Amino acid sequence: MDKTERINGTGLERLRDKIDEIDQRLVDLLAARKEIVNRVVAEKKAANLPVYHPAREEDIISARRDQARQAGIDPDHIEELFRLIMRQSRLVQTGHMASLGLKPGEKILIVGGFGGMGGYFAKAFTDAGCTVRLMGRKQWPDVETLCEGVGLAIVSVPIESTLDTIYRLGPYLPENAVLADVTSIKQAPVAAMLKAHKGPVIGLHPLFGPTTSSLDKQIIVTTPGRDQKACQWVIDQFAAWGAVIVMSDPKEHDDIMGIVQALRHFATFAFGGFLMEKKVRLSRTLEFSSPIYRLELAMVGRLFAQSASLYAEIIFASEKRRNLIKDYIASIGKYIDMLDSDDKDGFMEEFTRTADWFGSFSEQAMRESSFLIDKLIERF
């Protein structure tokens, strides 16, 4: 305790007591809010409404930011606080909604159900009161029995096995069963499902892995195949569990995933390989690094902490993806002349041209990356 605190100890203690009282009221208010959230869950369950309501959340954030300005408080601080509160609220809702089944008792067949993603969906539908049947390589002799009476069949096998699996499965499915796949490409699987099965067809691509603890704000891309009305309950089920549904046609999906997944993962793979070949001391570079380098290196390390076969499937999924990556490699080669000739003016010209193309997204990226950097600084 310093001299000033000793002199003003009594007044300081009174102020600290007031802070403690305010903190207690804040906790009590959060508890009251949680009680209201529980009532919201009950209402949503009764109406089969999804957990995530983005427009509602953004309205809340905007209102709280305005309130903060009027109160003389940093609106960024208040936004961060309320996003944390709302995320916790969504997690509570998602936990309660995990048992919500839009078709309790429905028979679900998961082909590849003993694998990671297959097992993930098997648990989700089981928790929702569905009757789930699992099928792997050893169960093919029982395929006719396993398909009997199913309302939904999900194909969750490696990409190279997907088409063959679909063609083998199709003839055994009831005509009114929904057939879906969860691979990271959609054109070929959807076409195969339409050919192999006469009933409802939908393509699904979950943009998350089997270790995901909650579907809160996890993205599932859905691509239409046949009889959207009959497939809608599957989409609504994922939304009720908290997932964000993105609609796309198969071609658009594959084009975008070529950039978002295949190209991005390959570039990360190549950068990691280059660091290895140069025998870079990663730990030493971190001692000299800015937070943004640590973040970038973390993303590289994250890739190599996962399955090589998974990324091989994604990158080599189609000739179109492989050609896109070759175009990327070729585009890097054109900068060699710029380096050889010490062409700084050419570099700045290309930089400016690309910056103009990125437009306002660069400002958004600056804000978002600054937020991540601040969090990283707090962590380390």
Describe this structure in words.
This protein folds into 3 domains: 3-97, Chorismate Mutase Domain, subunit A; 107-248, Rossmann fold (3-Layer(aba) Sandwich); 253-379, 6-phosphogluconate dehydrogenase C-terminal like domain (6-phosphogluconate dehydrogenase C-terminal fold). It has 17 helices and 7 strands. It has helices spanning 3-7, 9-47, 54-71, 75-97, 116-127, 143-147, 159-169, 187-196, 228-240, 250-277, 282-287, 291-304, 308-315, 319-333, 336-340, 344-358, 361-379; strands spanning 107-111, 131-135, 152-155, 178-181, 201-206, 219-226, 244-247. The chain has a 7-stranded mixed beta sheet, with helices on both faces. Helix 7 (159-169) links the parallel strand 3 (152-155) and strand 4. The mean pLDDT is 89.
Structural class: alpha/beta
What is the second-level CATH architecture of the largest domain? 3-Layer(aba) Sandwich
Question: How would a textbook summarize the main sheet?
Answer: 7 strands, mixed
Give the class-level CATH name of the largest domain. Alpha Beta
Strand content: 5-15%
**Computed CA radius of gyration, to the nearest angstrom:** 26 Å
CATH H-tier superfamily of the largest domain: NAD(P)-binding Rossmann-like Domain
Question: What is the count of structural domains?
Answer: 3
> First CA to last CA: what distance?
29 Å
State the helix count. Answer: 17
Low-confidence stretches: none
CATH topology value of the largest domain: Rossmann fold
SSE string, helices as H and strands as E: HHHHEHEHEHEHEEHEHHHHHHHH
Could you report the average pLDDT, rounded to the nearest whole number?
89
For the largest beta sheet, what order do the strands appear in spatially?
Answer: 2-1-3-4-5-6-7
The outline comes out as globular
